[in-house]
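A sample follows:
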Amino acid sequence: MLTRTFLAALAFACSAIVQAAVPVYGYAVKNTYPHDTAAFTQGLFYRDGVLYESTGQYGASSIRKVELETGAVLQKHDLPANYFGEGIAPFGERIYSLTWTNEQGFIFDIDTFEQVGSFGYQGQGWGLTSDGKLLYMSDGTAFIRVLDPATMGVLRRIRVTADGIPVGQLNELEWVGNEIFANIWQTDRIARIDPVTGNVRGWIDLTGLDELAGVAPGADNVLNGIAWDSTNRRLFVTGKRWPKLFEIRLNKK
């Protein structure tokens, strides 16, 4: 008869094999660029040769256009002081912007940064990205909301899991190829998510990148910010108040 200890050990071994099925990617730094240490980075994307970034904190939230090579802020729009800015995403010629707990989002003209609309939603706003057809929104839970840009209504929810276990704390989002990349808040990891099934296809382990940026671990300077240059296939990452932004290449461990 199999003992309870043996069965427990067998279950643990099987679990480890399943866990190992999800690949883990390391990284190599290809280029390093300056980043504004006053930017409490919440959202990031790359378009037409420049970065667009949203920053958080009450009284300091903004959306901005940033020169990649120098980190210089080329254009900036401040949010009202009672809003804590969160993720942003482009859709057409507009930028969609979330706030944290106000249940309020804004729509800006991508060229002028003039506000051209607003929208509401239930719960918190964290990260936002787009595949060019739909918007995808995180709220700190294990679910990503799929939004209709025309109405901002929720079309469906993606339950994100790794080996069947829900993955919470999904923060900044970026559409990369046919996947959603998501920062896991207060960790050094990015999840590569299948947008249809919600399964985590891989983990990106960015351990040590904060040290290369010259920051100490802490809630106010965690890894956050992913941008993808689809034309040149460049992946950029940074963190809150980091002095550096990195272009990285992924390496499978």
Remarks:
- DSSP finds two helices and 22 strands in the chain.
- The radius of gyration is 19 Å.
- Helices lie at 4-20, 209-213.
- The domain at 23-252 is CATH 2.120.10.30 (Neuraminidase).
